Amino acid sequence: MAANNMEELVSLCKRRGFIFQSGEIYGGLQGLYDYGPLGVELKNNLKKAWWSSMVYERDDVEGLDASILTKPEVLQHSGHEDTFTDPLVDCKACKSRWRADHIEADGACPKCSSKKLTEPRPFNLMFKTNLGPVDDGTSFAYLRPETAQQIFTNFKNILDSTSKSLPFGIAQIGKAFRNEVTPRNFIFRVREFEQMELEFFVNKGTDEKWHEYWVDERLLWWEQQGVPRNRLKKLDVKPGDLSHYSKKTIDIMYEFPHGLEELEGIANRTDFDLGSHTKNQSSLNIDASIKKNKASIAKLAAQDPETNEWSVPYVIEPSAGIERGLLAILNEAYTVEEVEGKKERTLLSLKPHLSPIKAAVIPLKRNNEEIVNIATQVKNSLQKLGLGRILLENTGNIGKSYRKHDEVGTPICITVDFDTLENKTITVRDRDSMSQTKINISESPELLKDLVRK
Q: What is the CATH classification number for the domain harbouring 361?
């Protein structure tokens, strides 16, 4: 069951400490958000799941963490300086600004309905920042608008240092920045965000097969994060809508609270990127239409071990925004249900490996020193397993503690009571079914391991 609307998710996220608007005490800053105690845990768990599936569980992918500040030449030869723009329209009546594709069909301003609009003009989405002590406009860098380009510029470094051969990939998780004209829909479209991107390098001629492979892999992965396959749709991007570098792109679409939109894109970028950044372009039989590059000092190509011929690899790129992933996962997990025909409870049915808190340990009586001491010992022993955050919930109100942890997605609550003092048993309550089971304290580590590693 999903949320009825975005307001339900926004309310939950603020109330329980998942996500806050940045600078809220000063009126907030549009398109920027801060992740609270539970939000940062959920975000880190999603990144960990992606990194594990991309890097640890494969032998053909290496990791990278590149700089955010980007040399202008990189984004010049990637095409960003020429193409990374949105058409911008001003409303002369209310002074609001809009992307041209957000103007109403009748040519009216979405805010005030006036038709007194300016002609569309290009608006560069990249942020600039000064480098060095003198701000004279000649020494600057861009905040990267995507994480992909530093993967391409590090292709030779990783190829040489790891001795990889095609096909292989380079994975990166990191911040990117886009000066969106109209950030909107909570964390769906923002100005500062994180991407999970893989650039998978393949031989020309095998690219279509690998493109299909990665579409299937990414659909499966999202299912494993709690987004059902029947809630995902594949959109084959039309030729006229493709990015300048793309031979074919499949967008994985999801029904967000505000409508059907892209969750992740899987693009066949051909040999455009490495071809754009390499030296000796004329000798490498590059298929893509690229600009001449006289500045690069590296040959970004791979040598065939049998023929010794050099060629520029094609690239398959699965690219997902963490914020959009979180929004989809929260939306799918959000449930409001009746309990025994009485009071409703709000529930986040998160996959345990994503849950911000893996288990809450609750002393039955907060002022009973023996019970609290044992609860603390149980909490500390489970924390040492390294499975994630374990919380000691010493409020003295079992019912409220259960409801709180249902709402934040904690898969199990462990109660330490008077039986624990006598026979070392604890009560384990399951979040989804609300069933309760007595087990020995010694059994709790294996129970938690099995739960989180499903």
A: 3.40.50.800
- Token couple for 8: 């339900």
Containing 438, the helix (H) or strand (E) segment is: strand 436-440
Contacts of 385 (CB under 8 A, 6+ apart): 445, 448, 449
My answer on whether 316 and 171 are in the same domain is: yes
For residues 303 and 292, give the distance between their C-alpha atoms in angstroms, rounded to a whole number: 22
Tokens describing residue 347: 């529930």
Of residues 367, 412, 432, the one with CA closest to residue 394: 367
Q: Do 171 and 314 lie in a common domain?
A: yes
Asked if residue 203 lies in contact with residue 313, where contact means CB atoms within 8 angstroms, the answer is: yes
For residue 345, tell me if it sits in a domain: no
Together in a domain, 115 and 213: no
Per-residue model confidence as pLDDT tens digits over 259-296 = 999 999 999 999 999 999 999 999 999 999 999 999 99
What's the token pair of residue 385?
């397993």
Q: Are strands 97-99 and 85-90 parallel, antiparallel or unpaired?
A: antiparallel
In whole angstroms, give the CA distance from residue 373 to residue 350.
30
